[in-house]
Amino acid sequence: LLVEQMKNGYLEMARINLTLASELFNLDEELQEGWLSTKAEWIWR
Questions:
Q1: CA proximity to 14, closest of 6, 26, 4
Q2: What is the mean pLDDT of each run of 10 residues along the chain (45 residues)?
Q3: How far out from the chain centre does Cα 2 lie?
């Protein structure tokens, strides 16, 4: 029973970490896109 609870807790933590990681990754992607577009604008001037 304890092992099952530990496994469930671990899976829950992993799921939360994945959610946080994907949110951070999405944020990072948006920052990169913004940086690339400003860089492109600067080059085209």
A1: 6
A2: 88 88 80 77 73
A3: 31
pTM of the model as a whole: 0.48
Could you tell me how far CA 7 lies from the centroid of its own chain? 24
Q: Tokens 């939360």 correspond to what residue?
A: 16
Q: Give CA torsion, residues 30, 33, 39, 45, to 10 deg.
A: -110
Concatenate the DSSP letters of all residues of 1-45 into one string: -HHHHHHHHHHHHHHHHHHHHHHHHHHHHHHHHHHHHHHHHHHH-
For 45, the token pair is 């001037």
